[in-house]
Amino acid sequence: MASSLREIRERRRSVQATKKITRAMELIASSRIVKAQAAANAAVPYTRELTRALSAVATYSDAEHPLTTSVDNPTRAAVLVITSDRGLAGAYSASAIKTAEQLITRLRERGVEVELYLAGRKGIGYFTFRKRAIAQAWDGFSESPSYANAREIADALLAKFLQPTEEGGVDELHIVGTRFKSMLVQQPSVLRLLPIEIVQGVHALEPGEIVPHYTFEPDPQTVLDQLLPLYVANRVHFMLLQSAASEVASRQRAMKAATDNAQQLIEGLTRDENQARQAQITQEISEIVGGADALNQSA
Amino acid sequence: MADPLQVEVVAADRLVWEGEATNVIVRTTEGDIGILPRHEALLAGLVPSACEIVTTDGSRQVVAIDGGFLAVNENRVSIMTQFASLSEEVTPEQAQRELDRFERLKEAGEMTEDDLHRYHLATAQMKLIAKENGIRAH
User: Fold this and answer.
1) What is the pLDDT of residues A209-259, one digit of tens each?
2) Bridge partners, residue B76, by sequence
3) Which of B67, B7, B11, B84 is nearest to A43 (CA)?
4) pTM, whole model, 2 decimals?
5) Phi and psi torsions of A115, nearest 5°
6) Least CB-CB distance to B41: which of A155, A215, A222?
7) Tens digit of pLDDT for each residue in A65-117?
8) Do the Cβ atoms of A45 and B71 come within 8 Å?
9) Which of A37, A46, A219, A238 to mutate to test the interface with B (most CBs of B within 10 A)?
């Protein structure tokens, strides 16, 4: 009985230590959410202006670009999977990977070969363990991605896309990331980035309204040439920021659940511990009483 | 006077400056261009430079940009660039240091795409400082 009491006490202490850790992680995560959300929001004006400029070129000129023209029979596609660098974020990385696997299966069924690009150590670990070929991988910035990180990824992917298919280039580019809907809801999602589908027309023209005459300097083609790579980098940046916010929110939730669980365990264990201690005392008393009785009888 | 221009300078990761202005001077791939209220719709590529914004109260705001785009439509001017810095965020020493660092990298031939943009920003910052000094001398 005495050993069991000690065992229970040890277990309770260990759970208490775990709780302290998960509680600290929860607090850290909640303070980072604000920062991650602010970063995601700060990138919005650039995204908005870039999209507006792009649709202006698309609407008011007839410039064509390899990044916007789709291939009839795509044979190779690149898939960028964004996961976290660290674990303990609940199902965050697992659900992004699951979505990516579904996308890969779908692409394969269409007869499209898939090349894997990964951002985040968890994804790298997953695919390396399964001995899948990885085209290129980046890590170390999943919680606070900068624009430079996004550019690096976008440049690599663009170079791959602009290569002719026969020389190992790709026809399509998909990004799998996690969208931050709210603190409670984060949704893994797939974005087909290339070829770009430009949303035509900022607003529908009223009958009788004059079509604004846009001047392009130096000319529409050059403007489009310069605009599209920026747009791609921006989309990658956007997805990285969304995923970062999702990761932190996911971690906060997971750690809160872990803390609550630990609290429950501690309560149960404390009860067991008290019971064991009481049982021990009762036993000792009955032993003493029994011993005294025996002495009285023998006297 | 015509309605003032609504100006926005946006970098990839933040809104750098926004406000009303009567004149915006930027350097496009074709040369310097001044945007006054009611300018026609325009979309132009920019080169690394310091762009000047004359605000409605007559003061000047100078912003260093690493290239990017200028979009004008219905009195709205937006300058999109990957990296930008406002004149009050830059000190001459710091700008010179950055420029020197990137020039060394350039000579060593170790410049990445990203460094190139930062180099452009650094050169733009130098132009900005020159411009600021010019304004102060007047």
Assistant:
1) 555 677 887 788 888 888 888 888 888 999 999 999 999 999 999 999 999
2) B6, B73
3) B11
4) 0.82
5) -110, 135
6) A215
7) 777 777 777 888 999 999 999 888 889 999 999 999 999 999 999 988 899 99
8) no
9) A46
Given the structure tokens 């609504």, which residue do they identify? B6
Question: By CA distance, what is A148's nearest residue in B?
Answer: B114
In 3-state terms, what secondary structure has residue A91? coil
CA A138 to chain CA centroid, nearest Å: 14
What single letter denotes the amino acid at residue B40? E
Helix (H) or strand (E) holding B86: strand B84-86
pLDDT for the residue numbered B111: 66
Distance CA B36, CA B95 (A): 30
Interface contact flag, A213 B40, Cβ < 8 Å: yes
Q: Which residues of B touch A (CB under 8 A)?
A: 8, 10-15, 28-30, 33, 40-45, 68-69, 71, 73-74, 78, 80, 82-83, 113-114, 117
Which residues in chain A belong to E strands, given as ranges?
76-82, 113-119, 136-138, 172-180, 186-194, 215-217
Cis peptide before A195 (omega within 30 of 0): yes
Minimal CA–CA distance to A159: which of A150, A149, A169? A169
The span from the CA of B10 to the CA of B84, in Å, is 8
Torsion on CA atoms A243, A249, A253, A258, rounded to nearest 10:
80
Six token digits for residue A286 = 């009955």
Chain A's closest residue to B30, CA to CA, is A218
CA separation (Å) from A68 to A59, A195, A222, A228, A268?
A: 14, 5, 14, 9, 61
Question: Would you call B25 exposed, middle or buried from its count of C-beta atoms within 10 A (0-12, 13-18, 19+)?
Answer: middle
d(CA A96, CA A241): 15
- Which residues make beta-bridge pairs with B25? B34, B52
ipTM of this complex prediction, to 2 decimal places: 0.77
